[in-house]
Every structure is written in C-alpha cells, then in structure tokens.
Amino acid sequence: MLRYVLLAVFVGVLHADVCKQPQGRICEVDVYNCCDNNFGMALNLTKCNGNLWDRVNCYRAEIENMFGTSVDGGLTVCSAWSDWMKCLGRTLQDCESVKFHVMQGANSDLFPLRPGLDTYVNNDGTIRNVFINYASQLQRCRDTFSNNVNTNWENRCADFRELIGCYQLPFQTGAGIEGGWWGCEYERSGVTAWLPECSEQCTATNNNIRAAEELPQ
Hints:
Layout: H1 2-15, H2 29-42, H3 52-69, H4 71-88, H5 92-96, H6 100-110, H7 117-122, H8 126-133, H9 135-151, H10 156-191
Signal peptide: 1-16
Keywords: Signal
Protein name: Lysozyme
C-alpha cells in the first residue's frame, strides 16, 4: 500500500505548481486556485472546468469513479487529498466554508481515506463495485435531497435522514452489513459538515433505508 501512495506523491510533485504559503487563516483565492489546480492535475481531472460549484460536483463524480475502479485509484486520491490539505495549511477550514458543496465534497471524500480506509481496502472489491454499479442510484439520492432541501429548508434534518438511508441501501445490497454502514458514514460525514444541527447515526437497522425512487418528494 505504501508503495502506491509514495508513487502517487512522486508523480504529483513532478507536475505540481509551487503555491505560496497562506499568510493567515483567511482563505486566499489565489492560493486556493493554485492548490485546486494541483489537485486536479494530480488526479487528471481534465473534465472538471467551470465555476467552483460545478467543479466540486464534477470532482466528486470523478473521484467516486476512482474509488470504484481499484484500490490503487483510491490510494491515489488519498495522496492528492493529503497534498491539498497541506497546500491550504491554516486556511483549510475557511476555504472549505466558501461554499457548502466544498465542505460536503471534501468531508465525504476524506471518510474513506481515514476511518473508512480499512473497510474500503479489505472488502474484496464489493464497496468499490457499488460506486460503479449503483452510480445512477447514488446520484438520484443526492439530487432528491438537494431538491427537497431547496424546496423546504425547515425539513432539512428529516431529508438528511432519508438521504443517508438512501445511500446505505445500495452499499448494503452490494457489500453487506459492513458495506452498508460504510456507505451511510461516507455520505453522513459530508452532510454533517454543513448541517451540524442534524444529528444522526449510521446503524445496520437504520429505519430510513429505502431506494431513491421511494423517497418522499
């Protein structure tokens, strides 16, 4: 595993721009853009252009595809995220709060790199297969949640519970009980970054597990 991580770091260094060090804790746009550009190059995210909002959504789709393709792909993402966080330094927290989608995307993708890494690596490929085989269903879960929250903000915590149950179902179907927990935590860790008032735990007996097409509109 270490060999792949070191290789990914080495390749990233060869092509990375040298970004200036942040001077304080306030997000600096030029530094953020430099770090963001290096992150995109390290993972060859050539399809992700446009404004910040669009790039974050594109990054997430591309990164989940890497998680689904191979363990090597997942470890390459680990290396790129590590470099991105070091690049932003003390401004990381402020930069992540620029738009909630940045926080959601960053925190979701950090879960499999930290507490969820062992499960991701040692699950015989079943978790990785979910990202590929259930990609459209996972997208429907997110789209439904986004639409519901935009329509009725006051109901956001109930919608959040429905979202993590919706995410848990395909992982539990494709990767068993442990995989279901992993999928639930993966999505929960991202959403709670910008909805800390919505407290929900992931369990195998989650009463909100249901398919995307069954979610209340």
